[in-house]
Design a protein that fits this description.
- With 242 residues, the protein is α/β, with parallel strands linked by helices.
- The chain has helices at residues 8-56, 171-178, 208-239, and strands at 61-62, 75-82, 88-95, 98-109, 114-123, 140-148, 165-166, 183-190.
- A five-stranded mixed barrel has the order 2-4-5-8-6.
- Strand 4 (98-109) and strand 5 (114-123) form a beta hairpin.
- Helix 1 (8-56) runs antiparallel to helix 3 (208-239).
- The longest helix is centred in the first third of the chain and has 49 residues, at 8-56.
């Protein structure tokens, strides 16, 4: 009768190898996620740098036929007629630590489309009563400002728009207000200089790109720590344990 001998040392090696492989897979997955986060932060830094340069430039251009995400911050000049009666208030806006609203008014362009213009910020009083917007010049006007797509930097509220008070600048709400009239798919942040008492602090922070790069360094460091730790653990289990 033959006896089957078990090799505990061999079983231990196989167990260590299997656990080491699983640990490596987990470490690689986590490290890849950290690296992806770092790459995303670098992309955001590049975008913020370009945006800051566009806000700093004094050069203006005509309104492009269709905006692109790469055109955010572009300084343009447009002609049209204000639709003051369709002004809406954008809630949940702060400036210098104070709560307030933005006035959003459509401008009818020469081609008939509506271009919604963010005219600026005004504080709310303690009762949160909505202030009346400053009067606008009637007839054909020329205005300058920076183009921004509504999806970038405007989503500060939740829930649907109700009446003339909107929680955010929302393309669907703009199209609904236009009632079938074509809407230009970007918002114009009105240029500073008008003596209407509204605050127009549009330019992004000059340090925003550096902050994203700092976050990228952190994510890459996390990835290096994870991989380094797993190398240390696996080496210890393979060579230092009995």
């Amino acid at each position: 009768m033959m006896a089957t001998q078990c090799n505990p040392a061999g079983m231990k090696v196989k167990t260590v190898q299997r656990s080491s492989v699983l640990a490596w897979i987990a470490a690689v997955v986590i490290a890849v996620l950290f690296i992806a986060a770092g790459i995303w932060q670098l992309a955001r830094a590049h975008y913020k740098d370009i945006l800051a340069q566009r806000y700093a430039t004094l050069a203006t251009t005509m309104l492009p036929a269709e905006p692109t995400r790469d055109g955010d911050g572009m300084r343009v000049v447009v002609r049209g007629n204000w639709l003051a009666k369709h002004t809406v208030w954008i809630d949940n806006r702060t400036h210098a630590g104070r709560a307030g609203i933005h006035f959003l008014t459509p401008l009818v362009l020469v081609d008939g489309r509506w271009l919604f213009v963010d005219r600026g910020w005004v504080p709310l009083d303690g009762r949160r009563s909505l202030p009346e917007p400053p009067p606008l010049v009637l007839g054909d006007v020329t205005v300058e400002g920076h183009l921004v797509t509504p999806a970038e930097g405007f989503h500060l509220g939740a829930g649907p728009a109700t009446g003339r008070l909107w929680p955010r600048i929302d393309p669907d709400s703009m199209r609904q207000l236009a009632a079938g009239v074509p809407v230009y798919p970007a918002v114009l942040q009105l240029e500073q200089g008008a003596s209407d008492g509204l605050v127009r602090d549009w330019a992004p922070s000059t340090m925003s790109g550096d902050r994203h790069r700092a976050y990228a360094v952190q994510w890459f460091s996390f990835a290096a720590i994870v991989l380094g730790l797993m190398v240390w653990v696996i080496r210890r289990r393979l060579f230092n344990e009995d």
